[in-house]
Predict the structure.
Amino acid sequence: MGVTQVTVAVSNPGDRQRRWEGLFLVDTGAIDCMVPGNRLREIGIKPEGKRTYELANGTEVAMDVAVARIEFMGEFVGATVIFGKDDAEPILGVTALESVGIEVDPQNQRLKRLPAVRLK
């Protein structure tokens, strides 16, 4: 399967003028979104806690998390964001995708809108 990327704007929920935009890897294997930590701090988002994540290689790591406003494809959602390393590739996780009714079309590696957001 190929790589799917999308432009995402991350903003501070308390001040939406403070935002950062970047190209995110769409990762349906990731639950939450990951953003370079320096970018989150630049827009005034501070860690609110830690969560343990399992990496692709099976290693578990505790990472700082907070909530941010995530915008992509004309949609928005409040989502958990992980403070990645400052040079980390941004990741758009499946929770944000499903929350706005968007899924990955595996045949052409593009995002597509569902007719409705799943409530079931």
Q: What stands out?
A: The chain is about 10% helix and 55% strand. Helices lie at 37-42, 94-99. Residues 57 and 87 are 19 Å apart (CA to CA). Strands lie at 5-12, 15-27, 33-36, 49-54, 60-72, 75-84, 91-93, 102-105, 110-113.
